[in-house]
Amino acid sequence: MSPFITNYTLPPLPYSYNALEPYISAQIMELHHDKHHQTYITNLNALLQSQAESTQASDIPTLVYLQSGIRFNAGGHINHSLFWQNLAPAQSAEAKTSAAPKLMEKIKQTWGDETKFREAFNTALLGIQGSGWGWLVKVDGGKEDRLVIMTTKDQDPVVGKGEVPIFGVDMWEHAYYLQYLNGRAAYVEKIWNVINWKTAEERYLGGREDAFKVLKASM
Amino acid sequence: MSSTLLRSSTVRCALRASTSASSKKARFAGATFVRGKATLPDLPYDYGALEPAISGKIMELHHSKHHQTYVTSLNNASEQMAEAKAKEDVQTQIALQPLINFHGGGHINHTLFWENLAPTSQGGGEPPKGGLSKAINDSYGSLDAFKEKFNAALAGIQGSGWAWLVQDTQTGSVGIKTYANQDAVVGQFRPILGIDAWEHAYYLQYQNRKAEYFKAIWDVVNWKAAENRFK
Fold first, then answer.
1. Which of A62, A85, A108 is the last residue before a domain boundary?
2. B219 to chain A nearest CA, in Å?
3. Which pLDDT band, with edges at 50, 70 and 90, does A207 fall under?
4. Which residues contact A165 (CB under 8 A, 6 or more apart)?
5. CB atoms B207 and A35 under 8 Å
6. Which residues, in sequence order, are CB contacts of A34 under 8 Å at separation 6+?
7. Above 0.90 for ipTM, yes or no?
8. Which parts of the sequence belong to the Manganese/iron superoxide dismutase N-terminal domain (chain A) (predicted)?
9. Which of A33, A123, A131, A172 should we substitute to test contact with B (largest number of B Cβ atoms within 10 Å)?
């Protein structure tokens, strides 16, 4: 492998596979982390290798051809890396909204109260047609930062200019199907029990570099 | 909701009864769209009939829950669309289009999918004959070479979607196309054979090993149904 190529590795889960039970089963977590996330990383590394070779060969058609695969697999790596960190065992202090005082203040200011925010977020999640993610995002507004709910399709990541992902919820069927089957609404309802508000607060107060630090660590 | 949008169940039952006695082709069309109202078509085989390629549990959830949800949501969106049209509310009509595309596509795709599968006892897995067989050989060399290309297309879908063997209505030739989410095969191309690559189609049995599902499903492909669609 070329010395110029970053080789990404699977970041370890910050808790055990069964730590999010009963809301997300250990079987889901193990497959999701060890198989799905690993596959995105394996594919990404191979694609980056091809990209380096094509760059060296000035092979522009191949470089363009590689883009959608890189976007998909890099997105998968980014999204899952953020996701594991923005979940926490339900009994932990991190899973309480009191771990995110500044963020909650902004949420209340934006949506009126926490319930209305959750309803809006759930509606966005359930409106996704196909595979994708729902995100709470901090957007640089120039004068003042804003909070917005975004959905992204497939593995598209939140990487727009001035955007910092605060937390994400995976709406691919592999994220819930073994436990919730076609009951998407139940999954969406239950996942709030394991959102890591401490991580959310840190990302909210920090910049993009802070949100993506786990990616740097997995190189 | 305007009362004119409510359809009498007597009329609906009568129409359904009249379609059930008609030809096979008319039954496919009639059972699923009765006077603009979509209904869940019966599976032409038991839930467990496609085992071991597809488990009975997957088939039951896929048909009675997932497909039913597309049918219900399509009918809801269609009713709202009829209302918006009656009121000449163009904004609402445009806002409803993605829902019609998604749920209408989900209904169409699954209806075609159930038909283009069959238990091995009912001919599932038996290779195509006649014109379709010739068209596949002309384009791909052999059925095995075609399956290999088709499985590569399935594996390449990024997210939820379908792969289809389609016929180009302009040239008559066949080809492989993938469609995102529940986008339906409409327009220039005619659907001949579709394979569902959504995770709900295989996850309970195959989990992340989707290549195994793509390999196994050929044992229960109903090429007879595909031949009937080919012109």
1. A85
2. 25
3. confident
4. A82, A135, A136, A137, A157, A158, A203, A211
5. yes
6. A10
7. yes
8. 7-88
9. A131
